[in-house]
Design goal:
By secondary structure, this protein is α/β, with parallel strands linked by helices. It has helices at residues 22-27, 41-44, 47-57, 74-86, 98-110, 119-122, 185-203, 211-233, 238-250, 265-277, 281-296, 301-312, 321-338, 355-362, 378-387; strands at residues 11-14, 32-37, 61-65, 92-96, 133-137, 149-154, 159-164, 172-175. The structure holds 5,6-dihydroxy-NADP and zinc ion. Residues 142, 194, 197-198, 267, 281 line the site of zinc ion. The site of zinc ion has 6 residues, from helix 7. It holds the Pfam family Fe-ADH.
């Protein structure tokens, strides 16, 4: 196990009705907030009205900024930044999923920064301070409710990039699994793939003697695999929704990554897909992850065989570890397919013509290489994407 520091300061309030405490929770931090949300879902479900009432009851003044799109855009971040600066708003309240939360965090980092905020996603500057953010979560997926990351799309540059800073971990996250019952089946499935990917990016590691976190990873994956079909079968199944929601947070608050090297190549590759084709992040991961696995499993077949056996109950064949490993990858792919996700680029309507461009862009950040488990250059990324056609 490697040395590590772990601090997750986000206060989590979980269960039925917790969104109605948002006024009280927010009032601890500010008396004026930017209320940030996405498209129609929070309005249609009545959630936004309840949040407004709760804020008003607690004496918190709010200014609204809706319209966050999935794969949130820099342009709206800049708009939010201007509003906060002009109206001296010291706190951002995100009501929605990963996209809304990421947009809120990006505004939070941009407001006190004197330069061009995109610097943060070009890695030429890091935030030295940021406004505090609070969250009412509506979809278990990105884990942004407790993570320090914000992933933003610069549509002009056709780039989607992540920024991570401890300063960006939300002050609180209110998580009511009932709010996720209105999710379309496809979004529930995309969320599941993202949660699983967050675990797998950490699970496939070169670090030895990490049994505790290995087992936590396996438990998280198995919980998602058993509960997502239940939630798809019956969207009102509170127990299943609650399991998925809590698993989604634990998958990405970095508890599961403590003391171990992590990979993150699949996320890097997926972000290029989302940047060019605006595909849902989880759907992109369902395509990229199995293809990445087939490319790298020979690096440590025993780890992949363990994954197959522990997570998908594949019979462990000590005389043919490779067969066990490949069976596990096949079962992961079948699971994604069964819950309604694409597992090939063609199934998502993505053509081959821009694969070399995506491969090149995805490796720019890491000095030409990405991935902690296996280092990949742009030719390797290209072959992963081509194998996913
Ligand atoms: O905009 P509305 O109308 O709210 O609709 C949303 C959106 O269309 C809908 N939705 C959300 N909650 C709903 C609902 N519909 C009905 N009922 C509800 N309760 O779902 C759609 C997707 O929402 P979005 O916020 O985009 O989903 P998700 O949480 O998967 O976030 C994806 C974004 O997070 C980034 C991804 O790259 C992507 O941009 N990520 C952020 C991370 C982080 N900050 O730590 C890590 C992740 O790896 C990921 O990269
Ligand atoms: Zn993700």
């Amino acid at each position: 196990m490697l040395q590590f520091e772990f601090e997750n300061p986000t206060r989590i309030v979980f269960g039925q009705g917790v969104e109605n405490t948002v006024g009280r929770e927010t009032a601890r931090h500010a008396s004026k907030v930017l209320l940030h949300f996405g498209g129609a879902s929070a309005l249609k479900s009545g959630l936004l009205d309840r949040v407004r009432s709760s804020l008003t009851e607690a004496g918190v003044e709010y200014r609204e900024l809706g319209g966050v799109q999935p794969n949130p855009r820099l342009s709206l971040v800049l708009e939010g930044m201007k509003i906060c600066r002009d109206e001296k708003i010291p706190f951002i309240l995100a009501v929605g999923g990963g996209s809304v939360i990421d947009s809120a965090k990006a505004i939070a980092a941009a407001v006190p920064y004197a330069g061009d905020p995109w610097d943060f996603w070009e890695y030429s500057a890091s935030p030295e301070t940021a406004l505090p953010v609070g969250v009412v979560l509506t979809i278990p997926a990105a884990g942004s409710e407790t993570s320090g990351s914000t992933v933003i799309t610069n549509a002009e540059k056709e780039l989607k990039r992540g920024l991570t800073s401890q300063l960006l971990r939300p002050r609180f996250a209110l998580m009511n699994p009932e709010l996720t019952m209105t999710l379309p089946a496809y979004q529930t499935a995309c969320g599941a793939a993202d949660i699983m990917a967050h675990v797998m990016e950490r699970y496939f590691t070169n670090t030895r003697d990490v049994e505790f976190t290995d087992r936590l990873c396996e438990a998280t994956l198995k919980t998602v695999i058993s509960n997502v079909p239940r939630a798809l079968e019956n969207p009102q199944d509170y127990a299943a929704r609650a399991e998925i929601m809590w698993a989604g947070t634990i998958a990405h608050n970095d508890l599961l990554g403590t003391g171990r090297e992590q990979d993150w190549a699949s996320h890097g590759i997926e972000h290029e897909l989302s940047a060019l084709y605006d595909i849902a992040h989880g759907a992109g991961l369902a395509i990229v992850f199995p293809s990445w696995m087939r490319r790298v499993y020979r690096h440590d077949p025993a780890r992949f065989a363990r994954f197959a056996h522990e997570v998908f109950a594949v019979e462990y064949d000590p005389f043919n570890i490779e067969r066990t490993a490949l069976e596990g990858i096949g079962r992961l792919e079948s699971f994604f397919r069964r819950i309604g996700l694409p597992v090939r680029l063609s199934e998502a309507g993505i053509p081959a013509d821009r694969i070399p461009e995506m491969a090149r862009k995805s490796t720019l950040k890491g000095g030409g290489m990405i991935g902690g488990f296996v280092k990949l250059d742009s030719a390797a990324v290209q072959s992963i994407l081509e194998a996913a056609l």
